[in-house]
Amino acid sequence: SKRTRPWWWFAIPAVAAGVIAVVIFMPSSRVGPLQLTDEVVQSDTKVRGPSRHLGDVVRATATQGGPNRVIWVYHNDALILACPGTARCRSSDHSMTVEFTLNLLGEYVIVALASQSAIPAPKGTYDLDVAMLRDIAAPEIKPFSVH
Questions:
Q1: Are 94 and 105 spatial neighbours (Cβ–Cβ below 8 Å)?
Q2: Tally: H helices and E strands in the chain
Q3: Fewest CB within a 10 Å sphere: which of 58, 87, 131, 145?
Q4: E strand residue ranges, the chain
Q5: What pTM does this model have?
Q6: What is the torsional sign of CA 52, 32, 29, 121?
Q7: d(Cα 97, Cα 89) in Å, to the nearest integer?
């Protein structure tokens, strides 16, 4: 005699296959660690190497790390550029980019942070702003000099 199985017995493999398909094809919500890159994209000097010169155009890009990103640029410890907040900032789901010209001699620092939560506006000085960011997460910091 043949035993009949209840209807839900056949639903179990179908549900399991559906769950597996969702897990496999669902985009990953995991985000990698913040990465800050900077490069000279335009220069009038013929000198190669890591040095920066007056008039160079620098591109800074922060990728990954979380949905909320900032890039702040300081010259001699004073904030000169904040992204978001200027038309020079470009954002996507996974990155933020800004280009700026080195108009002044001295010390520059590019600071980037990414977070799951909102990031407060900068106060305007390097020490205060980095202390505030460190309360949220570890910022990426790239200093360089223009002589």
A1: no
A2: 2, 8
A3: 87
A4: 35-42, 57-63, 68-75, 78-83, 89-91, 95-101, 106-115, 140-146
A5: 0.76
A6: negative
A7: 6
